[in-house]
Design goal:
single chain; alpha/beta; Rossmann fold; eight-stranded mixed sheet; two-stranded antiparallel ribbon; 10 strands; about 20% strand; binds NADP nicotinamide-adenine-dinucleotide phosphate
């Protein structure tokens, strides 16, 4: 598949690596100084080339939209209509930033909104999917889970089933287990879970640096004798 990476930051670089390894072709854009991704481009060789935000959006049959939330206005204006009709996988969390560059969870925004719904309103012809917002970027490397018997879940929500199917494929290709969590307004809950994971990291694991130890798991029980007795 042809994939546009809108911003090879912490998340975008790791997914670009995984998707290139799975055989996809990429155009990679960097918000900010693109010289920073020269090593990534060298590593990916023929599978990837550098593009502007607009070029990456135009290239992708599916597009990763993984930008710093306070930059969303600027990125959307660069993209224009290039994402119309496409599956757009967005990973953002609504982090506010103060004039002193202190980041905070924007709980006021989150009360009746989500980055996904906001992006869908800005790009009404794109097919927005939310995914990959719940794991710290280093934990998106499959190698982080090589000793784990289960693949971590990646939850996704969208109003477009076909875009959801594309996302399922790309989550699987990145080494994870896709979980369909319903419609796009479910992004509100996914973003709230992100806040919850930060609380857990602080209180259970002693700080944000340990957030990379966390992934949300849904455990499936095998129906045993108790269930069968109840049915009978
Ligand atoms: N990182 C994670 O663990 C994680 C986990 C889940 C979800 N997310 C979400 O996924 C999205 C992408 O995250 P990311 O960590 O991959 O992004 P990132 O690496 O921080 O990328 C942010 C990009 O914005 C640029 N930028 C421009 N102005 C900036 C400013 N004033 N401050 C900071 N960056 C600025 C940066 O350029 P320069 O590199 O040139 O500074 C960088 O390319 C975000 O919405 C984030 O909330 C992140």
């Amino acid at each position: 598949m042809k994939i546009g990476i809108l911003n090879a930051g912490n998340i975008g670089s790791r997914l670009a690596r995984a998707w290139a390894a799975a055989g996809h072709d990429l155009v990679i854009a960097k918000d900010g100084e693109d010289r920073k991704i020269a090593p990534l481009l060298a590593e990916l060789g023929d599978r990837a080339r550098l593009g502007t935000i607009r070029e990456a959006a135009e290239f992708g049959e599916a597009v990763l939209f993984s930008v710093y939330w306070p930059r969303v206005n600027a990125i959307v204006s660069e993209v224009g209509d290039a994402l119309d009709g496409k599956a757009v996988i967005e990973t953002m969390n609504p982090l506010g930033v103060t004039s002193d560059f202190v980041h905070f969870h924007d709980l006021k925004f989150m009360r009746d909104n989500s980055t996904s719904e906001d992006l869908q309103r800005r790009l009404p012809k794109a097919r927005i999917v939310k995914a990959f917002n719940l794991m710290a970027a280093p934990a998106l490397e499959a190698a982080a889970w090589s000793a784990s018997p289960l693949r971590p879940n990646i939850f996704y929500v969208t109003d477009y089933p076909a875009a959801g199917d594309v996302t399922r494929e790309l989550i699987t290709d990145a080494g994870f287990r896709p979980i369909n969590a319903g419609l796009l307004n479910g992004a509100r809950q996914l973003e709230q879970v992100g806040v919850l994971l930060h609380h857990i990291a602080t209180h259970e694991y002693g700080g944000d640096t340990d957030l990379i130890r966390l992934a949300l798991t849904v455990v499936e029980a095998s129906p045993g004798p108790i269930v069968r007795e109840r049915i009978a």
